[in-house]
Every structure is written in C-alpha cells, then in structure tokens.
Amino acid sequence: MMYSAGIFARLIVFALTAVPEPAKVITVPQDPDPAYTQVLQERARKIVQTLKIEDDARARQVQEVIAEQYRSLGMLQDTCDAQIKAVQSRTDVDAETKKLIIQALKDITQRLREQLHTQYLLRLSALLSPAQIDQVKDGMTYGLLPVTYNSYLQMLPQLTDEQKEVISAYLIEAREIAMDASSSGEKHQWFGKYKGRINNYLSAQGYDLKKASEERNVRNQAGSN
Known about the structure:
Radius of gyration: 22 Å
Oligomer: single chain
CATH class of the largest domain: Mainly Alpha
Helix content: over 70%
CATH topology of the largest domain: Topoisomerase I, Chain A, domain 4
Number of helices: 10
Shape: globular
C-alpha cells in the first residue's frame, strides 16, 4: 500500500514530538502520588522477601530497582494510551493517517519498553544471582510459570524430557514478555497465548489434552477422598 510523503512526514513529526525520548522515559522522576508510590514499594517489598537477601542495604536497593521498573512501565503505558486517545479525538486527521500514527506510537512504545527491560535486568544482575532474578520475574508475573508448568506435569505425567523442555521454553518466553505488561489481565493474556502454543505442540505430539485433563481431575478427586 502506497502513502504520500506528506502523510509519512506528519507521522514522523507527530511520533517524535509526542513520545518522550528514551532517556527521559527510562530515567523516571519520583512519582508525585505518595499513595501510588507506597503501592509500588509494597509490591516490590513482597518480591524481595522471597529472595532471602541477608544484606539489608542490598535488599533495599533491589526493592528500589523493582519499584522503579513498575513505575517506569506504568508511566510509559499511560503516556502511550493518552497519546492514542488524543490522536483518536482529532478531527483534522483522516482515519488512515490516525491508524498509521497510532501504530507508530505503539511501535515506539514497544522499543522503549524493550530498553527498559534490558536496563532493568542489567541493574538486577549487579545485585542478584540468576536464580534470584528468576524469582523476581516470577514475582512480577504471579508465579504463573511454575504453576502452569506443574499443571502440565500433573496432567501429562508421561511427558518426555524433550517435551518438558519445550514447555519450559515456551513459558520462559511468556514470562519474559508478561513481566513488562502493565496490568494483571495482560500478564495472564500472554501466558494464555503461550499455553495455546503449548497445547498445539502437545496435540501434534499425539496427546489428547481434553482426555488428559479429565483423567487428572479424576486422579485429584480420588486423592482428596
């Protein structure tokens, strides 16, 4: 599909002026809302508690890094949503141009989100072991990876080591994306999407997942009696 140079010029100007520069997004100022800040700190504190860090100063550092990541991701998404809403409300822009601008805003936001993700993991790696970083990721995604993985093991105890590795790889990828999501619903949606991929893989491997689920329910019911 071809578009005029004028449309692309307007798109680029709008995208570059409407979205903060990466450094300005990543270096986030203190949130002016004390109540919101407290919520983020508490969320981060609960994750840090699972890490069993003996050094109190380092534990506080980790808590600040996690809380700041939550704040950065939230502000980035709020900025994108506000800009999209502003574009949608404009009467001086045609529908096709609006579509292009909105997609550009989403693309820029995703690139900034990826930058935040990389910098966040680098900061954590200076303070935590790889195993502890995995715990942080699980904390940011409600433990959906181990819960989902164990659910598959219970449903299909005959899984081979290779099949387990494939399931694990899918769930790790889901967690990596979901930890940057701005809401609980979005985090669950990402895992739901990857569960669909896992189910397709297992079906191709010859498993009847509906039957396996029913058999698991029977086993669980018998175990509870």
